[in-house]
Design the sequence.
């Protein structure tokens, strides 16, 4: 089905239309998100703060770049109606495009129109303050004067690189205080930590399969907070794989100097719980009951059942990880009340339990079900050509069966033959017939009786046995007979 698009709203700034929002995948019954009050709250040389409001709770995304390709995204990860996002790591004196990209909790997404802002030039370098050590005041004044003479981006970049290298040797890196606190879900994880000085916050992470401690980049993924400089940090990363181990480290860097990082740490996302689908009793008789259910992902299943009169509890199940489950409960007492609960366990060890089902054992009046009836005939040539036919079928409960058949299509008064009646109650059955004639049509059917005397017959089936093939000698003789017979007939006509 193609996506549905709706015009979500028009934002007016100074009487001019500047923003048209588009909502994707909305339904007519939902309140669609709209964006209003888009404001560039503050503009600096390397960061900008953007604020806006929405009519319903949405997350907070800003797409930005130096053109409309929008390669950058920043997200707070929280749902609300008042939004504020800091866009960090910008180039000074540069024009940027941006737009709002918000999605509500129902998955409806609104995109604003394009906006622009221009970062300020490199912040003015102040003269040495009274807190600057006396021994540093003269070099600082000289450095400030020299920098103020620079007019090219390449020159400023060289100074910035040298300043960063010097700061890494002089300014102490922020310290990560303690281990990060982490809240783990099935496909996301939230991290919180503190530093001893104002800094940014970044989480670098990789799945266990991706993690390579000997690589120059052991963590191929990252997520960062929106607070450019603070001592408390919160980062949420999304799109993780359930039941998967991840390696990560948190990193914080101040305006100058190196970054402080945590050691390599790990966490494991939670597995998706194995919901129990359509639990029901397939059959109940005097001493047995069959229960069935499904799970959306492979799970092991156990049924715990209790005699409500004696309070005796038993269990049965299958340790294999399946999505379709059928379990038979045996050794039940006739005319007795029972309850049962189903437990499903996924491969990560998470367990869910169904609500109880109740039943009373009673006389079985349901005949067995016959299915998967197949036949296969083999011709054995010789002086007395014979045909062997194997007929197989299954029943949904142990039964005694036999196969009946007759030559041709049945009619009143036709003689019916039967295979030998089975002497054991089985669920898989085979009957072998060795007296069928070649190239002959036979009609057959199967009759089965369970241990309670309930009898059923299958529909009628028709098979055609193989035809005996003529040998090359038979074909040559027939050709000669036809030829000489024609000559004899011709010779007799002349007489």
Sequence:
């Amino acid at each position: 089905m193609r996506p549905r698009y709706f015009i979500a709203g028009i934002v007016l700034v100074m009487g001019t239309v500047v923003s048209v929002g588009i909502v994707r995948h909305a339904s007519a019954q939902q309140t669609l998100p709209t964006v209003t009050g888009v404001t560039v709250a503050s503009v600096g040389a390397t960061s900008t703060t953007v604020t806006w409001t929405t009519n319903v709770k949405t997350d907070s995304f800003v797409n930005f770049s130096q053109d409309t390709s929008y390669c950058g995204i920043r997200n707070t990860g929280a749902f609300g109606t008042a939004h504020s996002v800091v866009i960090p790591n910008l180039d000074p004196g540069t024009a940027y495009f941006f737009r709002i990209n918000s999605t509500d909790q129902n998955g409806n997404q609104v995109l604003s129109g394009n906006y622009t802002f221009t970062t300020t030039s490199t912040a003015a370098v102040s003269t040495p303050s009274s807190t600057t050590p006396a021994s540093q005041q003269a070099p600082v004044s000289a450095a400030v004067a020299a920098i103020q003479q620079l007019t090219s981006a390449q020159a400023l970049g060289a100074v910035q690189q040298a300043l960063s290298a010097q700061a890494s040797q002089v300014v102490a890196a922020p310290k990560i205080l303690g281990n990060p606190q982490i809240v783990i879900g099935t496909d996301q994880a939230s991290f919180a930590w503190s530093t001893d000085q104002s800094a940014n916050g970044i989480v670098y992470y990789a799945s266990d399969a991706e993690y390579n401690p000997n690589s120059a980049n052991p963590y191929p993924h990252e997520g960062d907070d929106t607070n450019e400089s603070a001592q408390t940090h919160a980062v949420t990363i999304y799109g993780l794989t359930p039941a998967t181990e991840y390696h990560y480290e948190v990193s914080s860097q101040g305006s100058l100097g190196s970054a402080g990082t945590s050691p390599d740490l790990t966490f494991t996302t939670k597995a998706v719980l194995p919901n129990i689908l359509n639990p029901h009793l397939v059959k109940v008789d005097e001493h047995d009951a069959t229960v069935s259910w499904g799970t959306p992902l492979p799970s092991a299943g156990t049924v715990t059942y209790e005699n409500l009169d004696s309070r005796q509890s038993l269990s049965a199940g299958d340790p294999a990880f399946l999505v379709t489950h059928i379990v038979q409960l045996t050794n039940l007492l006739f005319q007795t009340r029972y309850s049962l609960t189903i437990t499903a366990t996924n491969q990560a060890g998470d367990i869910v339990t169904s609500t109880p089902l109740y039943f009373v054992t009673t006389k079985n009046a349901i005949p067995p079900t016959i299915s998967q009836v197949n036949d296969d005939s083999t011709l054995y040539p010789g002086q007395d050509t014979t045909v062997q036919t194997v007929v197989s079928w299954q029943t949904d409960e142990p039964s005694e069966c036999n196969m009946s058949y007759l030559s041709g299509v049945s009619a009143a008064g036709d003689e019916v033959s039967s295979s030998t009646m089975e002497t054991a109650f089985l669920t898989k059955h085979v009957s072998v017939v060795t007296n069928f004639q070649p190239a002959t049509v036979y009609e057959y059917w199967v009759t089965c009786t369970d241990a309670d005397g309930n009898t059923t017959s299958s529909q009628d089936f028709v098979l055609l046995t193989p035809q005996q093939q003529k040998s090359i000698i038979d074909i040559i003789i027939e050709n000669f007979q036809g030829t000489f017979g024609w000559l004899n007939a011709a010779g007799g006509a002349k007489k």
The helical segments are 134-148, 153-170, 472-494.
